[in-house]
Amino acid sequence: MIRLLLATCLLLTNTVLGRDIGPGEALELRKKNALIPLEHILAAVSKRYPESRLLEVELEEEHGLFLYEVEILTNRQQVRELEIDAGTGSIIKDELED
Question: Once rounded to an integer, what is the mean pLDDT over residues 66-85?
Fold first, then answer.
């Protein structure tokens, strides 16, 4: 019973938080044209925030949607996190980090 409860909690946590996509899987998704190249995503971020510096990029899957999570440092010394649809390049979220 406890194992079932733990397994259910783990499954729900992964569903809510999403899962990280590793380099091998990302390469396969690129070969299938399921992802926009990261270079295009970073060019769009750079256009939106000129002179920003890249801090971190992650590729995740949430609810069947592939997302790039991009963290930058703007020229105003603000840390921003952008969530970008990896299939379309649409910016879903753009917010200041705490």
Answer: 97
Region 20-49: what's the mean pLDDT? 94
Neighbour order of strands in the sheet with 53-62:
19-20, 53-62, 65-73, 79-85, 91-96
CA dist., res. 41 & res. 48, Å (int) = 11
Residue 84 belongs to domain with CATH number: 3.10.450.40
Tokens found for residue 52: 């920003």
User: Could you tell me whether strands 19-20 and 79-85 are parallel, antiparallel, or unpaired per DSSP bridges?
Assistant: unpaired
Provide the domain limits for residue 48.
19-96
Instruction: List the structure tokens of 95.
Output: 């917010």
The mean pLDDT value for 44-64 works out to: 96
CA nearest 71: which of 42, 40, 50? 42
In a domain, 4, yes or no: no
How confident is the model over 68-79, as a mean pLDDT? 97
Q: What does DSSP assign to residue 54? A: E
As for how many domains the chain has, the answer is 1
